[in-house]
Amino acid sequence: MGLEAIFGTHSDHEIKKIEPIKKKVLALEEEYAKLSDAELRAKTDEFKDRLSNGDTLDNILPEAFATVREAAWRVLGLKPYPVQIIGGIVLHQGRIAEMKTGEGKTLVATMPVYLNALTGKGVHVVTVNDYLAKRDSEWMGKVYKFLGLTVGLIIHDIPNKDRKAMYACDIVYGTNNEFGFDYLRDNMVVSKSQLVQRELNYAIVDEVDSILIDEARTPLIISGRGEASSDLYQKADSFVRMLKPYTVVETDDKIDMDELVGDADYVIDEKAKTSVITANGIKKAEAYFNVENLSDPENFDLQHYINNALKAHGNFHKDQQYIVSDEGEVVIVDDFTGRWMPGRRYSDGLHQSIEAKEGVKVANENKTLATITFQNFFRMYDKLSGMTGTAYTEEAEFRQIYNLDVI
User: Where are the beta strands (DSSP E) in 77-135?
Assistant: First the structure.
């Protein structure tokens, strides 16, 4: 007989502590069943008043849960079972409730969602897809609306202009992607009035293992078109064409480079695969681009264009490192296999410089404007909880990464 059999598991202990709270909820069942719809609805304002006068969520929990159970019964014909009340308490405590599929996770969430929405700070219910978010917001939304709370929905089809109003609701259903991307977009706005989200208060994540573990390190990335800087690629290209190169096959440290290259404007090092402008070339660049000192910080961008053009001419050769396809695209050739690699591009503007050199259309750069992983996004909520059918296997990860307990 293992110790666990004698002393019980961590979950058993925690559930024992929750039992008395569950009993308090059940004890109110008959009393609340006698209330009229209007009296039941009035509970919401009563709770809000109590909270604003210093009462705590834990304190009003039994009454709030009893209110939702009765409302769900009247509106949906469903009443959370005792085991579902325990699940709801676990969620309110900012933990993960592991419940078998079919134990009605959607209904379990109504209790902690309602309770936490009473603060007015907003509750996010996070689902894995648009369909579930829409279904649950409409289905369980009836209960919240019956009790006088507002319900919002954030899915792919919701236009940007409507999102702020959705986030202002007491309870917001949505997908992890949409919540995450709205957070990123909010970080890019210029004025406070353009923000759509409020502070991240409390989230209940459905299928918590798939969102917080499986996809935890998936980065959400917002990329934008870089500046259409093709004219500078072309200018740098025209400039480099006028320069005189000097090619070094094997550099010897003992040689004085300046003496050796004489009046050359840039040095191509075939072994190191570099092309570097000389003092001579710098003078010409300053005259050509009409700048006083190429090394000034404000000319860093210009240097970047020139360096890429030097590389494109000095180290990258057509039909060796790349080919130009019949469609007029610069396609990289794999060094080792000689295979074409369509769709792959040299980074940092080099590909554009080669496009300028070959006289084909210079494509716009893509820039990453904002990025965050789900892991870092969800850790920003003041309180986080989740539901799953299979969390126990990932318990250690939930503890380590999110400081979340699995019950």
Answer: 96-98, 123-127
How many angstroms separate the Cα of 180 from the Cα of each of 45, 56, 248, 323? 32, 30, 51, 40
138-171 pLDDT, tens digit per residue, is 999 999 999 999 999 999 889 988 999 999 999 9
CA dist 47 and 67 (Å) reads 11
Q: Are 76 and 143 in contact (CB under 8 A)?
A: yes
Q: For residue 289, what pLDDT band results from cuts at 50, 70 and 90?
A: very high
SS3 54: coil
DSSP string across 330-374 = EEEE-TTT--EETT---TTTHHHHHHHHHTSPPPPPEEEEEEEEH
Q: What is the pLDDT of residues 48-88, one digit of tens each?
A: 999 999 999 999 999 999 999 999 999 999 999 999 999 99
Beta bridge partners of 151: 171
Residues 30 and 289: their CA atoms lie apart, in Å, by: 85
Separation between Cα atoms, residue 352 and residue 360, nearest integer Å: 9
More confident residue, 302 or 261: 302
Please check whether residue 351 is in contact with residue 312, taking contact to mean a CB–CB distance below 8 angstroms. Answer: no
**Contact (Cβ atoms closer than 8 angstroms) between residue 188 and residue 354:** no
Query: What distances in angstroms separate CA 290 from CA 158, 285, 310, one per listed residue?
Result: 50, 8, 19
Length of the chain, in residues: 407
d(CA 182, CA 173): 14
